Amino acid sequence: MSSISAQGVVERASAELSKRINGLGLRTGKHHSSTSKSSSVMERVTNVFCGGGSSSATIIAPEKPSRLLPSRLKAPPVRKPKQPFSMPPLTWDQLMLDERFLSKFFLYFTPGERCILAQVCVRWRDVLYRSQRYWLGLILVLQCREFRGVPVNERARLYSSLLRRGFHSLCLVGATNEDALDLINTFPLASKHVHTLKIRCSSIGDHALESLMDHLQALYELELAGCNEITEQGLWQCLHPRIVSLKLTDCINVADEAVGAVAQLLPALYEFQLQAYHVTDQALGYFSPKQGGSLGVLRLHSCWEVTNHGVVNIVHSLPNLTVLSLSGCSKITDDGVELIAENLQKLRSLDLSWCPRITDAALEYIACDLNQLEELTLDRCVHVTDIGIGYISTMLSLQSLYLRWCSQIRDFGLQHLCGMRNLQVLSLAGCPLLTSNGLSSLIQLRHMRELELTNCPGASRELFDYLREHLPRCLVIE
Predict the structure, then answer these.
(1) pLDDT at 5
(2) Lesser CB count within 10 Å: N end or C end of the chain?
(3) Where on the phi/psi map is residue 315: left (φ > 0), alpha (ψ -120 to 50), or beta?
């Protein structure tokens, strides 16, 4: 094709394209008229088709893509790289007052240590008080003898700070009737915010306790420990149906009739803990099917008069128990454990510590029937031998096993335990017949999280180093 014919093609093509292409032009420093715009289009088309034109021209991308060009030829959008977030440099003093830094900094401390940190300055206190996550698991303990000397306005400020931090538990130690009434008057908001009340080693009487219970309308957990001024009649008056957890420990006036009050007045009770030397089997007969549907946790500590007949009352009235403790109930025998194993098959935790009449036969019943058991405590069961440990080793669901001061366990029994792949917590504290060779075999328990070997004559410094080397994820307690 001659240059003249090529120029004619270019002119015709440019005339057609000039009607359809919008927004194309040459970047110049001067303002162009409509004539110059058409000539610039001509020039660009000439450059495209004939390869000519000035090299100083720069193409500006159109605001909208041309409808004549296929979409596959469109240039991909250019994304700007994200700029990394960077805090401006702060001095040390500024950093210690920066709320974003402090909110993460305080997470490295325990709740108890945060109590001290809150006293450093107002800014630290405000940051700590603003979030309730810093105070989870803490309970305020008021030593009432010392607290009486604090001015009333200071006491009110303390109670106000409890609400800011989300405290819902309160423990009174050494409280009197006057202290109980002062709490009611000084802390009116406790009626809606206190859910747990613990009264320990106090001389509070029936009337003061009843006033407290009437004031604390949101209360559903109550603990009375060492409160010898409270009578059974007073207990009857303070047990509101909203209570779901009750703990009675070392209260001299708590006997069978008090347990009867609990069974009759607390239909929604889920957890009941009782430590009373003179409670008998008759007390456990007060429970009825009314509690059988709700009561899941029963802990009897040092109830010396409870026998296998009491166990019969438990298994008949409370078939849905998941946690049962008979610690220190020294009259319980293997027959009582057989009743438990046959009738309470939902148990996940069983405590038979300080029950000296328990033998290997009881462990056979447990291994055969309690297939969901996850925790078993046999501290001071001095008649348990390696044979009983062999029974326990067949329990696939067992995760925690406590054998403190079981004086007849030998290395042979440990060989059985080494096959329990789900065992995570094991205590062999005070077992005198275990040797270093037997204890070293525990490295086979790769999933172990905690191992207690205090007061074990066979445990040496070399053994502890060996165990920590081969069980790096396990806490070995010396």
Answers:
(1) 52
(2) N
(3) alpha
